[in-house]
Amino acid sequence: MSSYLVTGAGRGLGLEFVRQLSQQPAEKVSIVFAAIRGSPSKALQTLADESNGRVIVLHMAVSNKSSITTAVEQVKDKLADRGLDVLINNAGIMPATPEGIAAMDNLLEVIQVNVETVQDVTSAFLPLIKKGNQKKVLNLGSSVGAISNTRKFAQATYPAYKISKAALNSLTAQYAIQYEEEGFAFFAVCPGWVKTDMGSQWAQLEVDTSIKAILDILDKHAVEINGKFLKLLIPGMENVEGLHQYDGAEIPW
After folding, report:
1. Which class is domain 2-230?
2. Which of 72, 142, 170, 218 is the most exposed, fewest CB within 10 Å of its CB?
3. pLDDT at 200
4. Cβ count near 48 (within 10 Å)
5. Which of 51, 135, 136, 161 is labelled catalytic?
6. Residue 65: is it exposed, middle or buried by C-beta count within 10 angstroms (0-12/13-18/19+)?
7. pTM of the entire structure?
8. Which listed residue (136, 165, 228, 231) is catalytic?
9. CA distances from 41 to 139, 149, 172, 201, 211 (A)
10. pLDDT tens digits along 111-164
11. Is 179 a known active-site residue?
12. How far apart are the C-alpha atoms of 181 and 125, rounded to whole Å?
């Protein structure tokens, strides 16, 4: 039985992580901590109410270290003498700067949300993850932020987001190297172009399709995924037209 913590769980990808994990057999997924900043959405509250205690709404503002510290103690108490098996760092923002990079005036804010909070949450929960069986930390990355894809996604008007995701990749890689001998898996996954508020209605993937493919990756052994930045593998979409393909390949950082 494994325990999971998902940040940004109130809507979109985070909410779907919670939904699909809570539908797994109890012998596979014992508890899911759904971390949110404010009050739970109606959808999340319904999931919690119908989960027989397996979904726990965790009030944690990822931008507030005191809130993170309090959340760690709440998770620790709930897990008793067990560790946290999987941390999914999903929370993030993607503001646009349509005027171009010279007009970008939100870089610090975006890096704080998309990178610094991941560091704060990961470091705070690391002692609990060390006690877990799986020892996996998944950071939601984006192929848009890969430096190797700078020209490919040049028309996407989200420069601060791209820069923050490149920094997140570096953070992921450094954790992966430092903790690989302890059996950890620190890795990043691009969820693809998904039909969420962030991805828009014109995106390629339904939310449930994206999350199912990510959870398939999470099921892999730690040594297979540690230190990697991965695309989703979606049968039939390996060579789909457009900027995103879903062949399960590694993405050059």
Report:
1. alpha beta
2. 170
3. 79
4. 18
5. 161
6. middle
7. 0.97
8. 165
9. 23, 35, 30, 20, 19
10. 999 999 999 999 999 999 999 999 999 999 999 999 999 999 999 999 999 999
11. no
12. 18
Nearest-angstrom CA–CA distance, 68 and 78:
15
- Is residue 142 part of the annotated active site? The answer reads yes
Say which of 22, 51, 142, 164 is annotated catalytic.
142
- As a whole number of angstroms, the distance between CA 250 and CA 253 comes to 9
Which phi and psi angles does 17 have, rounded to 5°? -55, -50
CA distance linking residue 205 with residue 217, whole number of Å: 17
Give yes or no for a contact between 28 and 2, defined as CB atoms under 8 angstroms apart. Answer: yes
**Amino acid sitting at position 98:** P
- The torsion region of residue 91 among left (phi > 0), alpha (psi -120 to 50) and beta comes to beta
Q: How far is CA 146 from CA 5, 13, 171, in A?
A: 26, 20, 13
For 198-235, the pLDDT digits (tens) are 777 878 999 999 999 999 999 999 999 999 999 999 99
- Is the distance from CB of 190 to CB of 231 less than 8 angstroms? yes
At position 88, the amino acid (one-letter code) is: I
Q: Rounded to an integer, what distance in angstroms lies between the CA atom of residue 16 and that of residue 28?
A: 17
Q: Which residues contact 17 (CB under 8 A, 6 or more apart)?
A: 4, 6, 9, 88, 90, 211, 214, 215
Q: How many residues does the chain have?
A: 253
What is the Cα Rg of the chain in Å? Answer: 17
Cα separation, 109 vs 115, in Å, equals 10
